[in-house]
Amino acid sequence: MTSSWKIPASSILFAFLLLALFAVGSSSAQTEQVVRLDGGNCTYAFGVNERGELQTLYWGGRLGSHDSIPPAHSLPEVASFDSPYTTTPQEYAGWGAGLFTEPAVKVSFVDGSRDLVLHFVRATPSGSQSLDVLLKDISREIYVTLRYSMDPESGILARSVSIENLEKQPVLIEQAAAAQWTLPPASYALTYLTGRWAGEWALNQELIQGGARVIESRRGTTGHQANPWFAISRQGGRDTAAPVVADEEHGEVWFGALAWSGSWRITVERTQLDAVRVTGGFNPFDFGYKLKPGEHLETPVFYGGYSDHGLGGASRLLQRFEIARILPQAPDPKPRPVIYNSWEATEFKVDEAGQVALAEKAASIGVDRFVMDDGWFGQRKDDHAGLGDWYVNRQKFPHGLKPLIDKVHGLGMDFGLWVEPEMVNPDSDLYRKHPEWVLNFPGRPRSESRNQLVLNLARADVRDYVEGSLDKLLTENEIAFLKWDYNRNWSEPGWDQVPVDEQRRVYVEFIRNLYSILADLRRKHPKVEIESCSGGGGRVDLGILHYADEVWPSDNTDPFDRLSMQDGFSYAYTPQIMMAWVTDSPHWLNGRSTSLTYRMLSSMQGSLGIGANLNHWTAEDFATAKRLIAAYHSVQRTIVRGDLYRLISPRDGSGMSATETVSSDKNQAVVFAFANATKEGRGFPLLQLEGLDQDAEYKLSSIEGKLHPETPASASGAWWMRHGLQLDLRGDYQAAAVKLDRQR
Ligand code: DGJ
Questions:
Q1: pTM, whole model, 2 decimals?
Q2: What is the residue range of 217's domain?
Q3: What is the CATH number of the domain that holds 649?
Q4: Mind listing the pLDDT tens digit for each residue in 434-486?
Q5: Which residues does residue 36 pair with via DSSP β-bridges, in sequence order?
Q6: What is the enclosing helix (H) or strand (E) of 376?
Q7: Are 347 and 354 in contact (CB under 8 A)?
Q8: Does residue 619 lie within any of the structural domains?
Q9: What is the average pLDDT across 178-196?
Q10: Mean model confidence pLDDT for the chain
Q11: By alpha-carbon position, which residue is closest to atom 1 of ligand 1?
Q12: What letter does residue 128 receive in the DSSP assignment?
């Protein structure tokens, strides 16, 4: 008889209690057990096979509540070269017993053995919607607890692992994933994000072929090079010659995001039997975490979700989940204030008079928050000096920050400040006092980037110094916001103050200390909001987003380049956190000239900021910005919290692009459209809108740009979605924005 425990969203607790009743020791009983988790439109199931391995059974659209899932059976040996241990899709496979697919965990024992074979011990509820499954090596005292927590709304499953050493000797963990996900044999396409400084958020799509695709960071931080997110779209049956491009609004999509801001790796492999396995967690490159007897290692969380509404549906689900469960102010984070940031206007040349002049101008157009960027501290004149010395430069601010902050408050704005706490310039008081505080290998060069070195935050004294100096800064000044920057990656990641076999713990302890500093500062200063910036978008992931209210997606603020970056960003992250500044034209990076309205509309797709040199603006510029900031405020909630539909992609050299966001109650929609280069007299394509209530009546109004003369002032949702919206846009770098408001 099969006992398949079904867990409807409403009664997950009940099902988990049932689950607690079994603790399987012998293999005969194990074949009967199936664990099923349901949430949103998703079902996830696994079971224990006859050998005692935990085996994936199902991940996909929600099954009927009475459906029973057949029990786990390990796959037969197909050839002597591929044992069932390697062909059976395990939930968390130890490297041992002839595993040739990517392992979840790999260890070395002191006697030279490197064989780890994990079998099921028991499953226990750990909360109303979560469950722990304990695995143990077949002979050694290595225990692995798999944690599962299903979000009932979205069906997004949070998975992580704790590895515990109860041997009498230490053990070295050489590889530790947070989770492994398996999809059955079929044809799939992989979507993932890559980039570089000033070129983040490029969307890549390819058919998943035999072998493995690795996306990773070896940089000690999340990195610009790739982002820890993936989506996999079903392309058809097993033998289908599938198109490579995944569908935006239709079809099945599985996606995942790793909550870790250190070196990470996600491996997507198509096995010899055509299943797809995704393994993600700490990057095994240069990894080595020694566990003494009694110690354990916690992995980050790997979130996974499912949508049957294409990549668009997947990103809407993930964006809602970030708002509801991840962000520090979840489940109802405040819309971001419209900020002014001084960086592109002044760079390091900040002083009280100059910042006051900018603040007055920013206030006049309706900015909510004034942020002073780099240059205010230590002996900072350029990027050669000062990092680490988090006290005010008295030449630039003779009376401290208070007069500027008071002025900003008097203008009706709050005040934000730039910091880069994990770094030090060799030309700084801090480095002169503590040269031993940086990551380095003794006797080897300390490679500088941007004239700076990385502080070893894994050290308790460094951690305490960083937290202490920021705590003091926030205690002594009325600061509402920190822009937390991080402008290089690691080199020579040595930590010679601890024994050699513990030095590579730096990859884990550094990030844990970063998170703990952020958590402490938020607790001590609950009104302070934080932006994660790393020379643009080098540190954006679901780990840092537990502590950061927003992110800086790129140092590239060219409004045309930003369209495709913002498009890529939106696959993995909500526009709520996507800061977008309006800066000067011609743009410093590409020399491209664009109108202020084009720049404003490009930035209004996310959380709006102004980063231009306001000292150069005309009266007309001020009037335009003031009008559009007011318009933005009136629709901001729909833009940053609504359901986003990417109507026309700006990718791949597209001459046009358009997005639409619909408020969750479907009362309002906002559409942005960009004609970047129309050709051969063709007009802007008819936009068939999405997500409206087809029976409701919606009134159309322009936020910016002309409406087509024949476009009705009001029509049904069905009309806007089926007939479509015609905009009058042509030429180069033209933009329009409209809103639709429900009338009845
Ligand atoms: C890199 C950031 O991305 C910029 O916005 C600016 O803050 C500079 N650092 C300041 O050094």
A1: 0.95
A2: 3-326
A3: 2.60.40.1180
A4: 999 999 999 999 999 999 999 999 999 999 999 999 999 999 999 999 999 99
A5: 45
A6: none
A7: no
A8: no
A9: 97
A10: 93
A11: 535
A12: T
The residue whose CB lies within 8 Å of the most ligand 1 atoms, and thus the one to mutate among 555, 565, 579, 589, is 555
Nearest-angstrom CA–CA distance, 34 and 487: 48
Does residue 343 have its Cβ closer than 6 Å to ligand 1?
yes
* 555 annotated active-site: yes
Number of domains the chain contains: 3
Indicate which residue of 374, 414, 485, 561 is catalytic: 485
Cα-Cα-Cα-Cα dihedral sign, residues 184, 189, 192, 195: positive
Same domain, yes or no, for 351 and 312? no
* pLDDT at residue 241, as a whole number: 53
Q: What's the pLDDT score for residue 75?
A: 87
Q: Which of 373, 389, 555, 643 is catalytic?
A: 555
Q: Choose the final residue of a domain: 471, 501, 534.
A: 534
> What tens digit of pLDDT does each residue of 644-665 get?
999 999 987 788 999 999 999 9
460-476 and 506-524 helices cross at what angle (nearest 10)? 20
Number of the ligand 1 atom closest to the C-alpha atom of 535: 3
Q: Do residue 479 and residue 387 come from a single domain?
A: yes
Q: How does residue 129 score in pLDDT terms, banded at 50, 70 and 90?
A: confident
* 276 and 219 both lie in a single domain: yes
**Does the active-site annotation cover 485?**
yes
Ligand 1 centre distance from Cα of residue 566 (Å): 19
Tokens of 127: 């909360």
Question: pLDDT tens digit string along 270-328?
Answer: 999 999 999 999 999 999 999 999 999 999 999 999 999 999 999 999 999 999 999 99
Whether residues 310 and 389 share a domain: the answer is no
Measured distance CA(606)–CA(608) in Å, rounded: 6
487 in contact with ligand 1, CB cutoff 6 A: yes
